[in-house]
Amino acid sequence: MFYDLPMDVSFVRRKASILFVLQVIYVILKADHCYQMSRNVLLFLSKGQNGMDTAMAGKICMVTGANSGIGRETALGLAKMGATVVMVCRNRAKGEAAQRDIKQQSGNDAVDLLLADFASLQAVRQLASEFQQRYNRLDVLVNNAGSFFGQRILSTDGYEMTFAVNHLASFLLTNLLLDTLKASTPARIVNVSSDAQMAGILNFDDLQMSKRYRMFAAYAQSKLANTLFTYALARRLEGTGVTVNCLHPGVVATNIWSQPLPPFLRPLAGISRFFGISAVQGARTSLYLATSADVEGVTGKYFADCREKTSAKISYDTAVQERLWEISAQMTALS
C-alpha cells in the first residue's frame, strides 16, 4: 500500500522537483556557512613534523564510492588529516588512479583500496569480509556510493538498481560492520542522503517500481530510504558509543549529472554543471560529521551545510522506519 499517499502523486512529485530546482539556486546564492563551520576540519590545525594534519591519526575510515566526486574528496580530506583511509570503488583502474592521487596530494601512504560492485549483495558481503580480515577496527564509515539510472534496470539480485545501489548495499554493509564499529568506540557512521528525499514516496507494494519507473522518483525514494535507515539505526545503537547521521551534500557539479535526464530535470543539470558547488565543497558536511568534535555524541540527525536540518515529515515516522528495515533485512537476507 502507499503510505500517506496524496491523491495526485504526479503533482506532488513535480512540485517537489520544482522546489528542488529552486533550492539549487538558493544554495548557490547563500553564504558559505559550511566553510566557516568546518574550517577546523579542512585546515591543518594540528600539523605533524611532516606537514600533514594529524587530527585523525590512528583512525581507520572507510569511504564508499571513493574514486570520484564527493567520495574522492572525502577520502582525500580524511587522508590529509592523517587517517588510514580504506577506499571502496567498483572499477579497479579508476580506483587505483584515485588512490595514487590521494596518496600524493595528502602525503599519506596509508590509503588502501577495496573493490566492490554495489549492484551485487554478494560483493558487499565479500567487501565486509575482506575488510575484517585486514583490519580489526573501524572508526568511521562513510556510506557515500550512489547513482541514478535513466531506465529501469535490475541488479544482480533482481532488484531495481537505484534502490539496490543507493540503499540496500549500504544497509547491508553497515550491518555487517556493526560489530567492528562497536569494538572501535567512539565510532561514527555517515550516510550521504540528499534533499531529494523531501520528494520521496515509499510505495511498499511496489518498491521496485515495476509498474511505473521514473528516474527522479526512484532516486528520491532511495534517498528517503537512506534517511529512514539512519533514524532506525540510531535507535538501535543508543548507548553503544556508535553514532549515525545523514546529510545533504548540496547540489554538486559532479559526473552524476552526465546521465540522461527527463526534460523537466534538464534545467537542473545545466544549473548544477555550471553553478553547482564543487566536490570539495560537497564533501565538507561529510567530513564535518566524520571528524568534528562539534558533533561528538550527536546521533540520528539530518545535516546540510554542517548544520542540523529537518528532513521529510515521513522520515520521522517510526512505523515507516521499522517497516522499511524489516523489508530491507529480508531483501538482503540479513539474519
Give the neighbour order of strands across the main sheet: 3-2-1-4-5-6-7-8
Oligomer: single chain
How many extended strands? 8
Gap between N and C termini: 26 Å
Mean of residue pLDDT values: 86
Q: What portion of residues belong to β-strands?
A: 5-15%
Q: Tell me which CATH architecture applies here.
A: 3-Layer(aba) Sandwich
Helix and strand topology:
Blueprint (H helix, E strand, L loop, with lengths): L8 H21 L3 H5 L1 H4 L17 E5 L4 H12 L3 E6 L2 H15 L4 E5 L5 H14 L5 E4 L17 H22 L4 E6 L22 H22 L5 E7 L17 H10 L3 H4 L1 H8 L10 E3 L2 E3 L8 H14 L4
Parallel strand pairs: 1-2, 1-4, 2-3, 4-5, 5-6, 6-7
Antiparallel strand pairs: 7-8
Question: Care to describe what's here?
Answer:
The chain has 335 residues and is an alpha/beta fold. It has twelve helices and eight strands. Strands 3-2-1-4-5-6-7-8 form an eight-stranded mixed beta sheet, sandwiched between helices. Strand 5, helix 8 and strand 6 (242-248) form a beta-alpha-beta unit. Helix 6 (121-134) runs parallel beside helix 7. The longest helix is centred in the middle third of the chain and has 22 residues, at 161-182. The radius of gyration is 19 Å and the shape is globular.
Attribute tags:
Rossmann fold, disordered N terminus, 12 helices, 335 residues, globular, alpha/beta, 8 strands
Give me a quick take on this structure.
The protein is an alpha/beta fold and 335 residues long. 45% of the residues lie in helices and 12% in strands.
